[in-house]
Fold:
Amino acid sequence: MTPELLIQLLVSGLGMGFIFALIAIGLALIYGVVGVINFAHGEFLMVSMYATYLGFSVGGLDPLVTLPFVAIGMFGFGMVVYYVLMRRVLGAALHAQIFATFGLMVFMQAAAQFVFGADYFSIDHSLLSGALHLGSITLPLPQMAAGVGALLCSAALYVFVFRTGPGRALRAVSQDRVAALTMGIDADRMNALAWGLASACVGVAGSLLSNFYYVFPRVGAIFVLVAYVAVALGGFGSISGALLAGVIMGILQVLSGFFLESSLKLVPVYLLYLVVVLIRPKGLLGRQ
Amino acid sequence: MSNASRLSRPKPTRLLLWGALVAALALLPQMLAGRPFELRLLTIICLYATMGQAWNILGGYAGQISIGHGLFFGLGAYTSTMVVLSLGLNPWIGGLLAIVVAAGSGVLIGLTCFRLRSHYFVIATLIVAESVSLIFSQWSLVGAAVGLELPIRASGWINFEFNRNKLPYYYIALAMMLIVTLLVVWMERSKLGYVLKAVRDDEDAVRSLGLSPLRYKLIAMALSAGILGFCGTFYAQYVLLVDPPSVLAGSISIIVALVAIFGGIGTVSGPIIGSFVLISLSEYSRVYFSGSGRNVDLLIYGALIMIIAAYCPGGVNSLAGKFGRRLKHRSDDNLPNARSN
Structure:
């Protein structure tokens, strides 16, 4: 392997890694604050990708233009899912919590297939197309921009959670719900906020991703399984852990795609989940 | 749960009801001569009821929710088919080996994953199933993405193959359903059943009684996976084709769990009720929206899963139970309790 190729692989792995991280951060936020896993998280991504694609093919809007609208729309969607569905199952049996979002996943996937069919769509000739040439290294621009965008969004979320009042309230609920309640924090609203923020993150990821990735009904399943691994690796509920783990996932899957059959490239990533939860169940940066 | 405890001594009316149901199911095909669609529907209903019972042993009684249980179905289908194709053995022996392989893999998975609790375990089941499906669709020994085709042989019980008249398949599926249901009924009254429910409700309490929760979870897993393994063999012999999309699809795992949850998680009749309602629904909707490839059945399933989870996590059985109790003494409802997680 030449150094150029290695750099190229690492850079593209890093780009994907930030996308995985952004998806994983949303999962971690919901798990940390609300204590449930959103099994439909990948389908939130899929919906954002379809929305971006529709904006492009019907409205002629560039993905970069639709991005903020998709993020805001997904924020609202996440809040609605919390108030309509998830609030009912908090404190219910484990299987009810799991199957509430699991059902949403099945429903959204089937709905996408019902409306759009199983075809693959892609966005061509957006503002972000072409490639960056640095000597003998070729870096596809959409991937790079997506990586940078995802990193910026993660940073913004980080600042919100760790440097603002509402962010502090979110963290308080995630650390000790009862204590937060006695301090006058409205835990229910914080739950909704966590769902909204997480969905907005995945909306941004979907918009960025649709610049270079096909849109189809099952697209979310691929990304979200990797995001689960990232969340486990980072320690469930840990935002910085999810960021770090997402980047590791990105690089790992690019490298394993290089050495293995490309359709098997996710198998090592999945196996890593088992290794992590067995050896270090709290994850790399998880709270002990 | 609430239903199960009342089952400890079967009432004569209840036995009579079950007897009538079995007799009806045994005689039903006589009326369905020349109606292959309904015969196939009933066969698939019995198959999924069996699989739902198997899922329920682990998910309902032992409380270990798996959303990758289709894995064992697929492993069973592949095992017996490989045994028939490359070793030239009888499919029934293949079926026995399928039970061994599926139960063995279940125990292996259990040994590594049962240390995980709640959500961690759920995701692990999903990830293991997905990995195996990916590997099988690349592995040339098992036919990769093309899959394996079973040879057409003379129809008969010895060959486990009935080509013109599919009626025997129905009776095999019915027998599977009955045997597994009886097994669950027996389990519910045995020490095993009580310990499994205790493991579900409070693992630490079980440990403090000097019993090993892991051991009982492994027993539940082996039973559950082994049954699914044989179901896989049955399906392979029924359609004579084994490939990743038909036996290792994620949708199988969804339906297997859903029939149990829809009917009533942790109850004997739950998976049977669930299978009758859901499989009929999906087969008829498939006919109604014929071959549009738009997955109307999954659309309905998804909506149903959400409704069940949010509004009656105990399934149809808990609705019936609540209604019955309200008639009797208007006591406070006794839904399956939340467990701390």
Residues 3-34 of chain A form the longest helix (32 residues). The CA atoms of residues 71 and 135 of chain A lie 36 Å apart. Chain A touches chain B through 49 residues (CB under 8 Å). The longest strand of chain A covers residues 131-134.
